[in-house]
Fold this sequence. Notes:
The structure holds two protein chains of two kinds. Chain A has nine helices and no strands. Chain A is an all-alpha fold. The longest helix of chain A has 31 residues, at 64-94. Chain B is of the alpha+beta class. Helix content of chain B is 34%, strand content 19%. Chain B has helices at residues 4-20, 33-37, 40-63, 67-71, 109-112, 118-121, 137-143, 154-157, 177-184, 241-248; strands at 99-105, 128-136, 165-172, 194-195, 204-207, 217-225, 228-236. Chain B is globular and about 55 Å long.
Amino acid sequence: MRTEGRVVEAADDGFGRFFAREYRAVVGLAFVLCGRLDGAEDLAQAAFAAAYRDWARIGNYDDPGGWIRRVVANRAVSLRRRRSVEASALRRLAGRRSVPDPEIAIEDAAVWSAVRSLPRRQAQLIALVYLEDRSVRDAAAILGCGEETAKTHLRRGRAAVAKRVAVRQSEEFT
Amino acid sequence: MTDLNERLQHASLAVRDRVRLLSLPDLADRGTPVSRKRPQVLAALGGLVVVVLIAGLTVLVVRGHSSGQARTASCTGHARNVEAPRLSLREGMATLPGMTRVSAGTAPLSTAKDGYVPVLDCTFTPVGSLDESWLMSAAVARWGEDHVPLPLPEAFATQHREPEQVNLRVLRFVGSDQPLALLTNRDFANSSWQTLPVSIRGGKAYRSPNLDRPTWGSYIVQFPSGSEWVELSAFGPHLSIDDVRAIAERVGTA
């Protein structure tokens, strides 16, 4: 009974609902930006743990979900860069290539790989707009940048992804 | 599957499906300071996992996790928000004084209306599109086309009369009904935009507050032009609505 009471207490402060509602989506965001599911779960859990520690403040934000996405999006890119360096060193030592997630089709993995190769802001915006179906305005607000800046980053990112995955998006000037 | 939007949406669905299978972890395992300060929280979080699992399943059942699945259920072809073929640059702007065109491509409906509203994808069916991006030529000369920092440094931008950037989107439809309907559709204008009491080329004009440079001019103009719907946005330290009107007059006159 004591546990039930505390569950209610914890759920009543909103964190439980927030966690249940957002966890998987946040893992997805981290996953496409860092390229590894295990790393994505680590990032998401660390961010939610941080949110829980400071829930009295973060829970009162207008958009706690935006806050946690900004944290994860920034950390995911850092993690990816760090791991990229580590992976390169390992590959040189072991002569092995990194293994893609077997649950994601190769063509889909190629798209996200192209996204990850973009500059940080471009990758983050594509992830938020496409993976989460967010408007450019929402994505810009989450990342703390201006809407017009976001649109330009998004446009540049889309053009670069199109080239990298060789899909139709005419870029030539006629 | 050759369309960029389609590729990105398909890849997004794959990831959503992948993470949907994840179980919710026990955050108490993360060793948060909370668990040291309030040991009872460990037990609470253990029980909480059960609660959130149930809540999560409920959410999934009631809402469906992915709007992407819903969006493709009843729409076909371009109505699914794929990108309509690119229009000729004649539909855009031939030149802009002091500005350099840095990209020209297709414009998906979702980008044009700044967001995704699934029901509209079956309502508006563009048959052609054009997305142009222009940057201040002085900035392109200073940093190179691919490395212009955005927003531009204040000290640099204010030395120049031209806007930092101008973006143009043109969507062509069959007939003039859809461009007019698009103009009055509330989903195609952000609630944060301030409507201006002016009409440019028979359309609407807005001021769009910018987080990066709140004192700069930032405007969006939308207008119908025959079978086309045009959205023009411009941003710069000295930009006025009259400047934007002059830019709008150049659209479609190449």
